[in-house]
Task: inverse folding
């Protein structure tokens, strides 16, 4: 064996150790997030029993399509919701209270959905996600409406494209329910799960 070959043989254990140390260091420095779990459809019968204000926080989001051009597909993303600050008008929207606002990072087109405007906008006057709540004798009805153009405070949406999530169940780990998207009629729909991130 040549001297170069003997030197490479001696260095291999050291190189392997360096590679392992680098991998462990990268894992230790990576941000931690809640692992995605199996997402099952929520029970659509009865009263949801979800309060809008309890949904504030950051979530790992999964949408699954059960109808439309991408039936069977799913997409993962991030959802962030927060309360309106002092001086930011929440008010009412078509008979529903504007309770929370936020943004989302998710490729809606992968499940056949399309929102009007930017879903990543965190402007409270035209947020990417708006949480609406309607009080009825049967209980509260909560909707998450996606798209900054649909959520403008200075303009009521009229015959615009929509993406709406309706929570049906919620607990300390997150919430889940049904979603739908379309223009005049529903063109795609499915179910979703939102898992609360650690510390949020």
Result:
């Amino acid at each position: 064996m040549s001297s170069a070959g003997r030197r490479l043989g001696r260095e291999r254990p050291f190189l392997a150790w360096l590679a392992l140390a680098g991998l462990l260091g990268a894992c230790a420095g990576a941000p931690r997030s809640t692992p995605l779990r199996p997402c099952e459809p929520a029970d659509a019968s009865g009263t949801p029993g979800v309060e809008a204000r309890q949904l504030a926080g950051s979530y790992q989001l999964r949408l699954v399509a059960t109808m439309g051009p991408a039936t069977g597909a799913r997409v993962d993303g991030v959802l962030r919701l927060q309360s309106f600050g002092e001086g930011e008008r929440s008010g009412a929207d078509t008979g529903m209270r504007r309770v929370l606002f936020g943004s989302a990072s998710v490729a809606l087109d992968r499940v056949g959905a399309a929102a009007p405007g930017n879903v990543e906008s965190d402007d409270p006057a035209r947020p990417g996600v708006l949480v609406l709540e309607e009080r009825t004798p049967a209980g509260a009805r909560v909707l998450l409406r996606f798209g900054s153009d649909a959520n403008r405070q200075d303009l009521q949406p009229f015959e615009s494209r929509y993406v709406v999530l309706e929570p049906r169940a919620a607990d300390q780990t997150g919430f889940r329910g049904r979603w739908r998207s379309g223009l005049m009629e529903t063109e795609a729909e499915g179910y979703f799960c939102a898992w609360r991130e650690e510390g949020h």
